Amino acid sequence: MRFAGFVIALAAFAVAPACGKSSCEKYADMEVKCGNYPESEKEITHDLAQGFCMAADSDDDPAAKEMAAHFKAEADCAKKTSDCAEYKACTDAIR
Fold it and tell me: Which residues neighbour 73 within 8 Å (Cβ) at sequence distance 6 or greater?
């Protein structure tokens, strides 16, 4: 009986959809992928892009409110695209 429960749980886990990345994670990924940053700056660029995006989603940071619309728009571009040329065209259109 215990084995059957284990098999059922394992099967349910295998069928469950994988969690996707948040829009801020996707935005940070696209910034690094498409930004032509030196290897030594990619990690900090990723962290900063994701942090700014997350702050823009938060009402807790008044300093972020000024840039919130900008980061949200760029995050939307990252969510809609996977190609750097498309991403750049989208972000250039909001500037």
Answer: 91, 94
